[in-house]
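residues and backbone:
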Amino acid sequence: MTTPPQPRRPLGLSGLTALTASLLLAACATTAPPGAGTGSSSTIDTAPVAATPPAAPVQPVSTPTSPQQPAAEAAGAPVDPLRPEVPINIDDDAARTDLWVRVRNGFGMPDLDTDLVRVHEQWYASRPDYVQRMSERGSRYLFHIVEEVQKRNMPTELALLPFIESAFNPKAMSVAKASGMWQFMPATGRDFELRQNMFRDDRRDVLASTRAALDYLERLHGMFGDWHLALAAYNWGEGSVQRAIARNQKAGLGTDYLSLRMPDETRNYVPKLQAVKNIVARPAEFTLTLPALENHPYFLSVPIERDIDVELAARLAGMSGADFADLNPQMNKPVILASGTPQILLPYDNANTFLHSLRKHQGPLATWTAWVVPRTMKPADAAREVGMSEAQLRDVNRIPPRMVVKAGSTLLVPRSEQSRADVPVHVADNAAMLLAPDVPPLRRTTVRVGKKGETVAAVARRYRVSAAQLAQWNDVGAGARFKAGSRVVVYLPNAVPTTRTASAAKTVHTRGKAAVAQAKTPMKRVAKSAPAAASRKAPTRVAASKTPVRAGVKVADAPQAASRH
C-alpha cells in the first residue's frame, strides 16, 4: 500500500521559471469534463467560508519566516500525486484511452443476479439526469481512484463505490455525521489517520480519504476473504458482520452475503453497487449515455509552502471558489495553513495559471492566522484583545451565544501586516475551540428522596433543574422513578444555598468531611448540567469542567449509506 506523496521541498526562483515553461506546454492537455449539479436530494454541497477579515493587527502564534521570501516560492512544482517521480507526458497515447474501458477491464468481483439488483438498475435507468450529474462530478476523481485501486491489485468495482456512498460529493455529510466522498464516521476516520480539527477535515480530502477507504477495504477483505462481505462490513461494521456470520454458523446456515440477516440498508448495499457496475459495463442496455472520460489525471498536486487565503488561492488559479472547493473540500476556514495542508489540487491548466499568477502577486498571501487563547475569556473580551468586533469573531469561529472560550482554544483572527510568519505545525494539527457555558459555577450536592416511586421530573422541579439534566447526572432515564431513600446527585449554583427542610425527601445530607469533599468534587458534564442552559439548544457541543469538548464544524447533509464506519 502506498500513500499519496506530500512533497514539501521549496522551489527556487530559477527552478520555478523552468517549471512554468514546461507547464505552458502542458496547458494544451484536454481535461475531463467539469462537474455539475448535486448528487442526490439527501446531499447538500457546501464550500469553505470565505470571510473578509478586518484590518486590525494581532500577533499570531507562528514560527519565524523570512519576510523577504518572494511569493513565487510559496508553492512547489505541480506533480501527479500518484506518480510524482514520472514526468508528465501529455502526448502519451494511453492518456487518450477511454477511462470507462479501463474500469470495465478491471472488474474482478463475482456478479450478483438478484431481484434487488434489478430494482436498483431500474431506479438509475429512470433517472438519466442524476446519473449524468454523478458521472460528471465523479470525472474529477475517478482517474485517481482507479490508479490507486489498480496499484493495490484490487477490483475496479471499488472505484465505483463513491457513487453509492455520496454520489461522488466530497462535501457530503450524513445525518449520522459520516463525511466525505467515502463517508467516514469521525472515529473510523481517526483510526485511519484522517485528521479532523478546526482548520481541516481530512475525511473530505480527496487524496487522504481515498487512501484511507482503500486501506479499510483491504483490511476487511483480509478479515472476511470475500469482497461482498467486506463491503457489507464497510457499510454495517465489521463486528456486525462477524456476529451475523456466527449466528448463521450456529444455526447451520450459509455465511455468504446473501445468506446473512442484515439491515435493509446493508441488504441493498452490494446490489446497488452491482447495478452501477452493470450500467457502466453496458450503458446502452439501460438507454443511458456516460460522459467520455480520458485516461489521464484531472488534477495535479501543487505543494503549499506558505500560508495562503483560500479566496486568494482560487483567484490566482483562475477558478471560482466553488470549483476550487470541489478539489479541496477539506478546508474548514478561509485560510490554508502550509504546515497542516501540504498540497492543494488544481486542474492542469489552473496549476499553470496559479504559478504564473503567484510570481506576479504583490501583497500578503494570508490575511488570517491562528491565535491560542491564553485564558478563559468571553468572546467580547477576546475580540477586543485581537482588534476585531465580537460579531466578526463569533461569525468566523462559529461561537454560539452564551458561551465562553476556554484557555488553550485556537481562534481564527486577522494576521498582522507586520508579521509574515506562518502558523506552526503543532497549532495547525491540533487546533480546537473549547467552549463552556457562560453561567455561574455549580456545586455537586447529594440529596435523599423519601417518597416511594418519586419521579425524576418531580425531583427536578423541586431543585429547579431540567429532568434531562437530573437524569444524566444520575445515569437514569428522564422518565425513571427513584426508589425510596435513594441518593440523588444535584448540581446547584453556589449563589443559591441548599437548606434543610422538614421533609426527609428534601433533606440535604451532609456527613462531615465526606460531604464537604463531595460538594467540592468537580462536575463531569458542566455543559449539560447548568440550570441556565437546561432548555437551550446549543448548536455546538460544549466543554465539560475538566474535559472540554471540541467544537465541531458543520458541513453538508448527505446521502444515505452512512450509519456504519
Summary: Residues 206-224 form the longest helix (19 residues). The chain is about 35% helix and 10% strand. Residues 27 and 349 are 5 Å apart (CA to CA).
